[in-house]
Amino acid sequence: MIDFGFEFRILPDNIQTVTTIFNSKTTCTTHMNTGISCLRIDLLDETIDEINAIAKAAIHGTKLEGKQYTYGNLNRDV
Q1: Which residues neighbour 8 within 8 Å (Cβ) at sequence distance 6 or greater?
Q2: Which among 16, 27, 36, 50 has the fewest CB atoms less than 10 Å away?
Q3: Are 71 and 28 in contact (CB under 8 A)?
Q4: Domain extent listing, the chain
Q5: Cα–Cα distance, 11 to 20 (Å, whole number)
Q6: 61, 54, 57, 62: which is closest to 26 by C-alpha?
Q7: Residues 6 or more apart from 70 whose CB is under 8 A from it?
Q8: Which of 42, 51, 38, 32 lies closest to 11 in space, CA to CA?
Q9: pTM of the entire predicted model
Q10: Could you report the per-residue pLDDT of 7-45, keeping only the tens digit for each?
Q11: What is the pLDDT, as a whole number, of residue 1?
C-alpha cells in the first residue's frame, strides 16, 4: 500500500448509526449544482474566511480554486 500522507476525518453518528468519512481536502462540487434550489454544506475546521468563500461559491455556482480544494469523484464506490 502506498502512503500519500492524506488524513481522512471520520465522524461516527451513534444515534443514526452512520459514519461519515470526509475527504482530506475541501471538496468543491458547487459548480456542478446547476438547477438545485437547496444545498447542504458540511463544515468541519474551516475559518470564517473559508466559510465565506465556500458560501459565496455555492451561491454563485463557481469553482473554488487552489491546492486545498478537490473536485472529488462522486461516482466512485467505497
Answers
A1: 21, 22, 23, 24
A2: 16
A3: yes
A4: 10-70
A5: 5
A6: 54
A7: 23, 25, 26, 27, 28
A8: 42
A9: 0.59
A10: 777 888 888 888 887 777 776 666 565 566 777 788 888
A11: 62
